[in-house]
Specification:
Length: 439
């Protein structure tokens, strides 16, 4: 076994181009719409929404057609898909791996040894989702090792050990936050001392561009005087008042940072055990919805601009109708769809009042596509639900996983739905028969 591990580690540093990895457009890729890729955590805009149409509107108890299955190990890393390449992470034995599969066949193209395994009683292995940008794929291990790899041959461009370089502690549930790319910057939460609550690297060479200590920035203190812990949420980006805002939810607050590394605004958001996991949700009108579990609840904040670079976040409403333990919600047509602990709910953005509730699904996750919700429950059931506040209307339900936790949200790319548990990835055909792909 040790010889196999040593061989795998050596192979992860070797180059030539690996068979099965498609790095240039093929005839099959030419039939696909690039906007239908799923290149990072929660899709193209990190909001759980897809622009795809022509999807099936119902299915039987056997579920959508299975295109392929691929066995993997444990972990909660999401699935990113660009063209015919599929990326995720998992653990096996004593190590964590990044993997690239062929989207059409499910055949492994390459594997990269990322780190020793992160062990945790609620589930071991990597948590963060790979992010694909051009011919680079960026991965983060459960213990905080960040890599930039080349898609074509898994060659390592650069790497940073967050714990070693920035002296951050190992979070209780591991490093979960999936990095975000904004221009030439790759940003993520790190936590720890020395002013490194949030870090920004040059995505091309890994050089540190800036680091921000939130407490020092807001109080005018020294960078080392405050130890801000990372949360478990992933950042999202938006434009408000002609300014780019990168939203982070740390262990203690919701905040906005500019690409230049300036703190724009912040509001306290303290949850037990620092368990801020679900991402902030952007709603029209410069409003931000935030939610957390452990009976924390949810709130809507209105962002306004003062003079110059001054911004204010005012609470519009706050209640406990939505308590998102770890699954991020979806905004659609004036409503938030998401999991309140074990129940799927629809909640009005304007009032915070519940429109409907569906129990019995356990913790789950979801995405929006073609005016419907694709819902994956933690017990392995896949559902199609109308994205309507009028009532809960289910259009299909199937048991697709027979065992294991299903805590990883689904990914949709070019008519294929990618789902995983602790044992395998399944690729399902969600396209209507004979539907012509929009180009």
């Amino acid at each position: 076994m040790k010889k196999l591990v040593i061989f795998a580690i050596l192979c992860s540093h070797l180059a030539p181009c690996w068979p099965g990895v498609k790095t240039t457009p093929s005839e099959k890729d030419a039939t696909k719409n690039p906007s239908h890729n799923w290149p990072q955590w929660r899709g193209p805009n990190r909001d759980g929404r897809s622009v795809e149409t022509g999807l099936i509107k119902t299915f039987s108890e056997s579920g959508p057609p299975v295109i392929w299955r691929h066995q993997i190990g444990a972990g909660y890393s999401g699935i990113s898909v660009v063209g015919e390449n599929v990326f995720t992470m998992y653990c096996e034995g004593d190590y964590e791996f990044a993997i690239c599969l062929d989207a059409e066949l499910g055949v492994q193209a390459w594997e990269f040894v990322a780190d020793k395994i992160f062990l945790q009683q609620h589930g071991s292995g990597p948590r963060a989702t790979p992010i694909v940008d051009g011919d680079h794929v960026y991965i983060l291990s459960g213990k905080g090792k960040l890599y930039a790899l080349r898609v074509s041959d898994r060659k390592r461009f650069w790497q940073v050990d967050l714990r070693q370089v920035f002296k951050t502690g190992l979070p209780r549930f591991g490093f979960c936050s999936s990095p975000i790319i904004e221009g030439d910057l790759l940003m993520l939460e790190a936590g720890g001392l020395s002013g490194n609550t949030i870090l920004a690297f040059n995505k091309n060479d890994g050089e540190l561009q800036w680091q921000l200590n939130i407490d020092a920035a807001s109080r005018g203190g020294t960078m080392a005087e405050f130890k801000d812990q990372p949360g478990y949420s992933s950042p999202v980006a938006l434009t408000m008042f002609e300014q780019r805002h990168i939203l982070f939810l740390t262990a203690s607050r919701l905040l906005s940072v500019s690409p230049a590394g300036n703190l724009l605004w912040q509001v306290p958001w303290v949850t037990r055990n620092g368990a801020n996991v679900a991402a902030p949700i952007v709603a029209p009108g410069n409003r931000i919805f935030v939610s957390a579990g452990y009976n924390k609840g949810a709130a809507l904040f209105q962002i306004s601009a003062g003079g110059g670079a001054n911004y204010e976040a005012e609470q519009v409403w706050r209640n406990k109708v939505m308590r998102s333990q770890f699954s991020s919600s979806i905004y659609h047509d004036g409503h938030i769809y998401g999991f309140d602990k074990n129940s799927l709910k629809c909640v009005s953005v304007e009032t915070g009042k519940q429109a409907w509730k569906k129990t019995g699904l356990g913790h789950g996750s979801l995405l929006f596509a073609d005016n419907q919700l694709i819902v994956l429950s933690e017990n392995g059931r896949l559902l199609l639900v109308d994205a309507s506040a009028a009532r809960y209307q289910e259009r299909g339900r199937a048991k697709i996983f027979r065992k294991g936790k299903v805590w990883t949200p689904p990914s949709l790319a070019n008519g294929r739905l990618f789902v995983r548990n602790q044992f395998e990835i399944i690729c399902l055909n969600m396209r209507k028969p004979g539907y012509a792909v929009e180009k």
